Amino acid sequence: MSLMAKQQITSCGQETRNFPQPYSEGVYSGQDGHGVAQHLSEKLMTSVWISAQVGEFIEPLVEEFVECYLSRRRELEADYIGLMIMASAGYDPRAATTFYKSLPDESYSLTHPSGSRRSKMLNRPEVIGKAVAIYEQVQASKGVESFMQFSRSSVGLSA
């Protein structure tokens, strides 16, 4: 694939952006990471639990506070899973860290970590090393061992 090819990505609640490949693969695989980690189900269960615990009067405030915190954690988890998916698909995972480093160093709408935080997490030696090893296995046509045996603590998301 050409590195100059453009991909248009539209995300709910965000403007349409054009990302050059391989950055677009990093964005797509990060979205796949949300599905793999079942973040929507987790979000719904959190909402139900909070409603049951605090009642309807303060529930919106508590839910917003908790959800902002959990959303940033979910984004980091999805980034990790997406990095491994990207590497497994034969895309150089180092492109994702470069992409996140290029984003403005601010959290958008309190639901996403800053680009520098995401890049820093993905650039941790145990994370990028694992992704590059998978990528190199794919490039050498050796197949890929499962990357799904990870705990939240292995991605810096202690319970």
List keywords for this structure.
single chain; mainly alpha; two-stranded antiparallel sheet; 2 strands; disordered N terminus; zinc; hydrolase; protease
Would you give an account of this structure?
Its cofactor is Zn(2+). One of its GO terms (biological process) is proteolysis involved in protein catabolic process. Helix content is 60%, strand content 5%. The chain is elongated and about 60 Å long. It is mainly α. The model is unreliable at 1-17 (pLDDT under 50). It has one domain (21-141). The longest helix has 50 residues, at 39-88. The chain is built from 5 helices and 2 strands; from the N terminus they run E-E-H-H-H-H-H. Strands 1-2 form a two-stranded antiparallel sheet.
List the uncertain runs. Answer: 1-17
Tally of individual domains: 1
- Backbone CA Rg: 17 Å
Amino-to-carboxy terminus distance: 39 Å
Encode the helix/strand succession as letters.
Answer: EEHHHHH
Oligomeric state of this protein: single chain
Coarse morphology: elongated
Report the count of strand segments. 2
For the biggest β-sheet, the strand order reads 1-2
Family: Belongs to the peptidase M48 family.
GO molecular function: metal ion binding; metalloendopeptidase activity
InterPro entries: Mito/Outer_Membr_Metalloprot, Peptidase_M48
Keywords: Hydrolase, Metal-binding, Metalloprotease, Protease, Zinc
Give a quick precis of the structure.
The chain has 159 residues and is mainly alpha-helical. 60% of the residues lie in helices and 5% in strands. Its cofactor is Zn(2+).
Question: Secondary-structure map with pairings?
Answer:
Blueprint: E1 6-9, E2 17-20, H1 23-36, H2 39-88, H3 94-102, H4 115-122, H5 125-139
Antiparallel strand pairs: 1-2
